[in-house]
Design a protein that fits this description.
alpha+beta, two-stranded antiparallel sheet, about 70% helix, single chain, about 80 residues
């Protein structure tokens, strides 16, 4: 199990980094690396494409309803 945790931590280090919090010297901030920012941008483009395709198939009104339902489902499953 320790190897799995170490492997996952190693993978995440390629996407995020911990830096000192300038407002609190005791704290650390978790920030995206350049690779993490590129992955985030690629993900946003893919999501926009999927949403565009889905909106065309369903129509704008039904797509708005679908998004609202999915948001409710997300909030029910993973409350903040």
């Amino acid at each position: 199990m320790d190897r799995l945790v170490a492997a996952r931590a190693s993978q995440w280090r390629q996407y995020v980094e911990r830096i000192p919090d300038p407002a609190d010297g005791r704290a650390k901030l978790v920030c995206l690396t350049q690779r993490g920012r590129r992955a985030q941008e690629a993900t946003r483009k893919i999501v926009a494409e999927i949403e565009g395709d889905s909106g065309e198939l369903l129509g704008a009104e039904d797509f708005v309803v679908l998004r609202a339902l999915l948001q409710r489902l997300h909030e029910a499953l993973w409350p903040t």
